[in-house]
Design brief:
Order of helices and strands: EHEHHHHEHEHEHHEEEEEHHEHEEHH
Helix content: 25-40%
Number of helices: 14
Largest sheet: 7 strands, parallel
Number of strands: 13
Strand content: 5-15%
C-alpha cells in the first residue's frame, strides 16, 4: 500500500491553499511524530516554502522575505523543486544543467517571474525499467535550515523534525510534453516511499498548468480550500481563463483510464466568521468552531449545490472520493465539508510572518522585525484546538486502517463526535 498523498488545489488565488497546507502539514507532523511529512511546493509563488523556511517578514521593503532567502541560500536548484521536476522529466536524479544552477533574479536574488530559459525537451524514451526517483534527495528539514541560518538564537520555537519540504524558489521547469513521463515517475517515486510517509503537494491558481496536472495525476486526495463568496464558488466550474478546477479534472479524466488520480477528499471553508470557539454540528457540516448563522447558511447552500450536481447525471460524483457511497445530503455534508475560521489577525499574521505554525506558536510578546505583538494565551489555545480537529478531519488519522469505506465513515463520525465533546468540556472549563 502506497503512502497517503494530498494535493491542495483551487483555481482562485488567495483561497488559502498554501496557508492551510502550511498549518496542517506542521500540525499532522506534530501529532504523528513517527510519520514523515513531505511537502512539495508546486506553486509559482513559493508561499509554502516561504512560510516553512522562515516566514514572510522582510528586513526591508525591497528585500526578499526571510523564508525565501533561507531556502535560496540553504539549497541549490538541484536540491529543490527545479531539480525534482527535471529529474521527473528526464529520469536523471541530477537533472539541472550548469546554466540552470546559476542564480539570477530581482536585486540579485530570487525572482519568481524570470524563469531560466531551457532547451526544448527531447522526445520521450519511456520510463520502463527505471529505478524510482528518491524524493527524499530533493527534500530538506525546515528545522535544519532554520538552525543553520539562526545564528543569533532568536527563534523561540521548534518545527517538528519529521516535517520536510521540497523547496520552490519560483521556477517550475516542466513542459506540457514532459508531463506524461513525469507523472509516471512521480507515481513510482511515491510508491517507493516507506508507508510511514505522507506527501502533501501545494499548487497555485493555474489549475491547467503542467505542474498542476502532475499533482492531480499523482496525488489521490484533493483538499479544496474555499471561501464562502459566491463568485469564488462559481469559478470552480466556470473560469474564462480555462482554469476552472472541475473542468480541468474532467479533461484529465477523459485523457485515458486512470490518468486522473485526485478526487475531492475534503472541502475546507476558509476565513469563516465565528460566533463561538466551540465545535459545532450544523445539519451535517461538522466544524471545529461555531460559525455565525449567516455563514452556516451560506456553507450549507454551497454544499447543497454541489450535492445536487453530485447526484445529477453522474456529473460531479466522479470527482469525490467515495462517489455514490454517500447516500444523503447530510451524509454528503458530513463526509466532505469542514472549515477554518477567520482567526485573530494578530495570531495569523504572526504565524505567517514568523514562519511559525499555530500548533507550535508561543503566546506572549513576539518581535517580528520592526513589529511587536502580544499573543493572548487563551485565544491561541482555542485556535490550536481547532487546528487539531481540522487536522484529524482532513488526514483521517483517527481511522482504523481498514479498506472498508463504510466502516471508516461510521468510525470517523463516532470518534469525531467524542473528540468534539471532550474539547467542548475543556473550552467550557477555561
Amino acid at each position: 500500500m502506497s503512502c497517503e498523498t494530498y494535493v491542495f488545489a483551487n483555481n482562485k488565488g488567495g483561497s488559502g491553499k498554501s496557508t492551510i497546507a502550511f498549518q496542517l502539514a506542521a500540525s499532522v507532523a506534530k501529532a504523528r511524530p513517527n510519520t514523515q511529512v513531505l511537502t512539495i511546493d508546486l506553486s509559482l509563488y513559493s508561499d509554502l516554502t516561504t512560510m516553512l523556511c522562515g516566514g514572510t517578514s522582510r528586513p526591508s521593503l525591497l528585500a526578499a522575505s526571510r523564508g525565501a532567502q533561507t531556502a535560496l541560500e540553504g539549497t541549490s536548484k538541484d536540491e529543490r523543486v527545479e531539480g525534482l521536476l527535471r529529474a521527473l522529466a528526464t529520469g536523471k536524479q541530477g537533472g539541472m544543467s550548469e546554466e540552470d544552477n546559476q542564480v539570477s533574479g530581482l536585486f540579485g536574488g530570487w525572482n519568481p517571474f524570470s524563469p531560466t530559459k531551457r532547451p526544448a525537451p527531447k522526445a520521450s524514451e519511456g520510463t520502463a525499467g527505471e529505478q524510482p526517483i528518491d524524493l527524499r534527495r530533493f527534500a530538506v528539514r525546515p528545522s535544519d535550515l532554520l538552525a543553520e541560518i539562526d545564528q543569533g538564537g532568536d527563534v523561540q520555537w521548534t518545527l517538528p523534525s519529521n516535517l520536510w519540504v521540497c523547496c520552490s524558489c519560483g521556477e517550475l521547469p516542466l513542459e506540457p510534453q514532459e508531463v506524461p513521463d513525469a507523472v509516471r515517475r512521480l507515481r513510482s517515486a511515491i510508491s517507493a516511499l516507506p508507508q510511514n510517509w505522507i506527501v502533501i503537494i501545494d499548487t497555485d491558481h493555474l489549475a491547467k498548468s503542467p505542474v498542476s496536472e502532475l499533482a492531480f495525476c499523482a496525488a489521490t486526495k484533493l483538499i479544496l480550500p474555499l471561501s464562502i463568496d459566491d463568485n469564488d464558488f462559481s469559478r470552480l466550474f466556470i473560469d474564462p481563463t480555462g482554469n476552472a478546477l472541475f473542468e480541468v479534472l474532467e479533461g484529465l479524466e477523459g485523457r485515458e483510464p486512470g490518468w486522473l488520480q485526485s478526487k475531492v477528499h475534503k472541502v475546507v471553508f476558509n476565513n469563516v466568521l465565528h460566533y463561538q470557539n466551540q465545535p459545532s454540528h450544523n445539519d451535517g457540516v461538522v466544524l471545529p468552531f461555531t460559525p455565525a448563522k449567516a455563514c452556516i447558511q451560506q456553507m450549507k447552500n454551497m454544499a447543497d449545490q454541489m450535492y445536487s450536481v453530485h447526484t445529477d447525471d453522474n456529473k460531479l460524483v466522479r470527482f469525490f472520493m467515495d462517489g455514490h457511497k454517500v447516500g444523503s445530503m447530510e451524509q454528503f455534508r458530513e463526509r466532505y465539508f469542514s472549515g477554518m475560521r477567520k482567526a485573530s489577525e494578530i495570531v495569523m499574521n504572526a504565524s505567517k510572518l514568523l514562519g511559525c505554525p499555530i500548533c507550535v506558536l508561543p503566546s506572549g510578546t513576539i518581535a517580528i522585525d520592526t513589529l511587536s505583538c502580544t499573543i493572548d494565551a487563551k485565544v491561541l489555545q482555542a485556535l490550536q484546538s481547532e487546528v487539531t480537529l481540522l487536522t484529524e478531519s482532513v488526514f483521517s488519522w483517527l481511522l482504523d486502517l481498514k479498506h472498508d469505506s463504510s466502516y471508516q465513515q461510521a468510525y470517523f463520525q463516532n470518534e469525531t463526535k467524542k473528540k468534539h465533546r471532550q474539547l467542548l468540556l475543556e473550552i467550557t472549563r477555561t
